[in-house]
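Last lecture ended with a question: if I hand you only a sequence, what can you say about the shape of the protein? Today we answer it with a concrete record. The protein is Orc1/cdc6 family replication initiation protein. Below, first the input exactly as provided, then the predicted structure, then a couple of comments.
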Amino acid sequence: MYSELDSLSGTVLIILDEVDKIGEDDTLLYELPRSRDIGYLEDVRVGVIGISNNYTFRRNLSPKVKDSLCETEIKFSPYDATELADILHNRAEQALYDGTYADGIINLVSALAYQEASGSARRAIRLLRGSAEIAEGEGVTQIQKEHVRQANEKIEYGNIVESIAEQDDEKLYILKSLAHLALVEKTPARTRTVHQTYCRVVRAYNEDSGNEPLTRRGMFNHLSKLVMFGFVNTIDRNAGAAGGQWSEHGFSDDIGPSKIKEAIEANGLEWKQISTRGVS
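The predicted structure:
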């Protein structure tokens, strides 16, 4: 890389998009600004521009990197609905035929992206493209409001599935357990019922490794995190001195077995059938 840079002349700006993804090894950020002092470069000067949505990224840099960068931070506020509309008008003029969209459609798309994605231009463009694809699929020549609504629901669905797929194995096993219980109308289910089903799921997916399920308490710790993330609802029951206390668990309104199945398969895992017969 340095030999290629030195073949140029003058000053070169290196732009690192999503610089926070560089991870714990920030050596490159130390070396680039000092490349002439270190002796890596002779004929060119290097400047570094890092772009990130993570405002806390700089805190995790080592002291030597912070000293080397001598950075100046510039913050850009999220786009508002009017700015998103301007961006969408520009994209629509390039990507869509004249007469296939109205100003009201652009305004609706920008408003939804502003409300639901904190002014994300990427979300707004995805939503406009999705709306156009739905209209095209229906064989109509103009995007309608219902196409935008359908595209927005589709994006939301995909975002939820992606969030589920990002969970660790234990949480996915628990969600799969709840999915099988829900399919046979056994939710909301008591903690012991979820744990019994969870044990079957873990053993089904770990026949070769021999990994054993967590204890009920260990599973419950992960289950509590799923409640915190909004994937699961927990109801505490109290039947008094005679009946005792217990908790019941089920999916939140936005989650269901089909989304869990998609998330499992998105991670490259087979959707194995798990029997819930005998669990109580």
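Comments.
1. Residues 88 and 94 are 10 Å apart (CA to CA).
2. The mean pLDDT is 90.
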